[in-house]
């Protein structure tokens, strides 16, 4: 994960989840990138370009509770460590099927880590 940006916190919301990075990011650099679930044999991340957001049981449980909604929003935001302002730089809206797929991919990756 060299030259990578790691989200340092997350915020659970009524509509989804917000991952926060400590850097201002030019999202144009990531245009047309795929959102991936990445397993480094220790942790599981949501990956977008060179930006990584740690996925954990709390996040997955929250997303599971939102499956009754039509749209679930996952956002990537930036905030300097000393600021209270959070600026959204990128969002993706998942339908129920895609959200369930993300949950399933997390569970598959978690099983691979435990083996």
Care to describe what's here?
This protein has helices at residues 57-65, 96-114; strands spanning 5-6, 9-12, 16-21, 35-39, 44-48, 51-55, 72-78, 87-94. It has 115 residues and is of the alpha/beta class. Strand 4 (35-39) and strand 5 (44-48) form a beta hairpin. The relative contact order is 0.22. The model has no long low-confidence stretch (mean pLDDT 87).
Helices, strands, pairings?
Blueprint: E1 5-6, E2 9-12, E3 16-21, E4 35-39, E5 44-48, E6 51-55, H1 57-65, E7 72-78, E8 87-94, H2 96-114
Parallel strand pairs: 1-6, 3-7
Antiparallel strand pairs: 2-3, 4-5, 5-6, 7-8
Q: What structural keywords apply?
A:
single chain; 115 residues; alpha/beta; 4-stranded mixed β-sheet; 2 helices; 8 strands
**Approximate strand percentage:** 35-45%
Helical residue percent band: 10-25%
Q: Kindly state the mean pLDDT as a whole number?
A: 87
Pick out the low-confidence regions.
none
Provide a concise account of the structure shown.
This protein is 24% helix and 37% strand. It is an alpha/beta fold. Strand 4 and strand 5 form a beta hairpin.
